[in-house]
Amino acid sequence: MPTHLNPQDIPPVKIALTRRSLLGGGATALLASAPPFAAEAGTLRIQRLAWAGIKLVLPDATLGVDLLADPSVWGAALPDPLPDLGDFKGDRYALITHRHSDHFDAKAVARALGDQGLLLYPASLGAIVAPGVSRVRSAPLWEPQMLGGAFVATAVPAVDGYGDPQASWVISGGGRRILHAGDTLWHGAWWQVGRQFGPFDAVFLPINGARFAWREPAAEVSSVMTPDQAVAAAKILGARILVPIHYGVRGADGYEEMSDALQRTQAEGARRGVTVQALKPGAWLNWDV
User: Fold this and answer.
1) Which residue, 50, 78, 194, 246, could crosslink 206 as a Cys pair with Cβ 3.0–4.6 Å?
2) Quick check: 146 and 22 in contact, CB under 8 A?
3) For residues 33 and 144, is the Cβ–Cβ distance under 8 A?
4) By three-state DSSP, how is residue 120 classified?
5) Residue 155: phi, psi to the nearest 5?
6) How would you write the pLDDT of the chain (289 residues) with one tens digit per residue?
7) What are phi and psi of 123, to 5 degrees?
8) Long-range contacts of 7-16 (CB under 8 A, 24+ apart)
9) CA quadruple 213, 80, 277, 56: dihedral positive or negative?
């Protein structure tokens, strides 16, 4: 019989913030996973964009995650509108969870960042080519990255449905802490992430339980988190709000998602006492729920 550790016996991860995170190179110092120091609580606004994309807005900085603006990625299979990215005011940042084209739209990133913004990506992805982006930096897992005085972003474990490199992001700013989980599968690191960084003000989790037939032989199992799994993860993470992302595709060749993913998520959230806030693309998160 396999031996499993009790999550309560796993010590919190020792977070090392290197001077490379701050200045681009040098020695190591230690930093607790505390919220950023520059913005007052209550100033962070978050907008859901297309598919898995979100935008975080502070008075002097803007950060996007998994931006998507190219309608050809899903074509008619994604009937939801692709909201305009809008203005990225102040210091500009973009994060990606992995290389797949529905999570890394290089043109959208370049448009958002302009000629001064920073693209941050998980180090496991290897070298990233981002035409039109002048500043690109990788982030090892568990190592907080200081983004000016506005945000702190930390890459944490995720599992890709095809085994490609992927990470989720813990982001702190404006007195809030959130998690964005790309299109990860269910995995066993939720307890560790929750112990190190939780509770979370909001988590943005994929829910569509998609099955892929793009590689043979087809697995015929969900290769993205299902609604029940998203709610379970939110519960483990201590999330005050679960915002579903990564759903709404219909009729794509070789890609089949649960047709009632959002309704299932809402029902399971009600059963388990997790607040589910369903945002249409372009809508803003309401903290007062």
Assistant:
1) 246
2) yes
3) yes
4) strand
5) -75, 135
6) 333 334 344 444 444 443 333 333 333 233 334 443 344 556 899 999 999 999 999 999 999 999 999 999 999 999 999 999 999 999 999 999 999 999 999 999 999 999 899 999 999 999 999 999 999 999 999 999 999 999 999 999 999 999 999 999 999 999 999 999 999 999 999 999 999 999 999 999 999 999 999 888 988 999 999 999 999 999 999 999 999 999 999 999 999 999 899 999 999 999 999 999 999 999 999 999 8
7) -60, -25
8) 7/191, 7/192, 7/195, 10/191, 10/192, 10/195, 12/195, 12/196, 13/142, 13/192, 13/196, 15/142, 15/143, 15/144, 15/154, 15/196, 16/142, 16/143
9) positive
DSSP 36: P
90 conformational bin, left if phi > 0, alpha if psi -120 to 50, beta if neither: left
Alpha-carbon span 142 to 168, nearest angstrom: 10
**Farthest-apart Cα atoms in the chain, separation:** 55
CB 176 within 8 A of CB 44: yes
241, two tokens: 């709000």
Judged by DSSP in three states, 28 sits in strand
Burial of 33 (0-12, 13-18, 19+ CB in 10 A): middle
DSSP label at 184?
A: P
pTM: 0.88
Distance of CA 239 to CAs 75, 82, 210, Å?
33, 27, 23
Return d(Cα 61, Cα 7) in angstroms, integer.
36
Residue type, 84: D
Phi-psi map region of 235: left, alpha, beta (phi>0 left; psi -120 to 50 alpha): alpha
